[in-house]
Amino acid sequence: MKQIYEKYTPQDHQVWQLLFERQMKQLPELASPAYLAGIEKAGLVGAKIPDFVEMNERLMKITGWQVTEVGGLIPNKDFFELLARKKFPSSTWLRKLEQLEYLEEPDMFHDVFGHVPLLTNHDFCGFLKGLSEIALQVIDSDDAIENISRIYWYTVEFGLIKEEKLLIYGAGILSSGGESMYSLKSKIPTRLPYDVKTIANTPYIKDKFQLQYFVIESYRQLFDSLGEIEKEIIK
How many other β-carbons are positioned within 10 Å of the β-carbon of residue 210? Predict the structure, then answer.
């Protein structure tokens, strides 16, 4: 599966620009500085859909990670094998104009805008690679993979970080106009300190905004928790 850049339509470029500019109006006050810096480092702009070749050249120089094209959701084993090799899987298709507010399956805007900026952060990348290596040790255990998925969900996808104030770093929030504000400002969800055992035992939901978020103190804390995750998962 390759990104064929010339096949993107004017509407595709319009969708990317609309989503990018909408998020960039609110994220400077809501997102982690490491994420915001990563947007510039990865070369993401609203004026055009990212070219994976150009983007990968930038990422390779910073952390050695690459974005690799996939057709959509892939099996767990394939997913974790890619991450363990420092390759982040991404779709190359974009949602339609009528799908701006909600999309069940992740598209390129989620995969690239949400995930790629933090692929410039060494501690975060170390966590992503280490978590995947643990997953591959238990890939045949449905229960263990479910626990790994919960950790991935509540960190990589829907994590919050307490820096000078509470901020967003999870890709699922960063790529969602509604959840970006909800995750930080709403009184509905609970916000809990990052705890491996608690997260591994907390089911998640896919079809609505989250009812709880877990808060890390730093990306180094994520990386340093890999040993605890391994002990929790591999028993």
Answer: 22
Is pTM, for the whole model, over 0.90? yes
DSSP 159: -
Tens digits of residue pLDDT in 175-195: 998 999 999 999 999 999 999
β-strand 160-162 against 166-168: which pairing, if any? antiparallel
- Token code pair at residue 131: 């978590």
Contacts of 49 (CB under 8 A, 6+ apart): 5, 8, 12, 13, 16, 94, 108
**Which of 160, 216, 208, 164 minimizes the C-alpha distance to 185?**
160
Give per-residue pLDDT as tens, 106-162: 899 999 999 999 999 999 999 999 999 999 999 999 999 999 999 999 999 999 999
Structural domains of the chain sorted by starting position, each given as residue range(s) with its CATH number in brackets = 5-220 (1.10.800.10)
DSSP letter at 31? B
